[in-house]
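ESCALATION

Customer reports they have been waiting on this structure for their group meeting. Please prioritize. Original submission:
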Amino acid sequence: MRGNVVDLAVGVMIGGAFGKIVTSLVNDLIMPLLGLILGRINLKGAFLTLNGVRYASVEEATAAGAGVFNYGAFITTVIDFILMALVIYVIVTLIQRVKPKTPLAPPKPQPNLCPHCKTEVHPDATRCPHCTSYLIEDDPSDPGFLPVGAEVGEN
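Update from on-call: job pushed to the front of the queue and completed.
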């Protein structure tokens, strides 16, 4: 169990550092490129004020006490999340391919049950040791055949 806790701690630390890398990728590379494609718009700084007055920046609107609908930051965060999920999916898929496959255990055989009393009987038994009923259909032409209820020595 201690190894699992250490693995989890290492995973959290690496995930935090990796999260910073993905955030930087989104903020510094993808969003400016997307803004250029969309017509030189700074999408991260895109916002609407709820009081109808135009402000130069989100900080200026917030300082003035105006309600701000900051959709650019939201779009940036969604792209950040999608990239992080995609990278984690790829890493987990690669780990699953590399990890050795453990063979499945053969299925446990079903117990041999008496059709009359439903108790477990040895697979080689011909009669149930509990209720003494026949477990297999015998051939009447077999010299050792004894019908159910017949006594030994009867014809």
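Sent to customer with the following note: The beta strands are 48-49, 68-69.
Escalation resolved.
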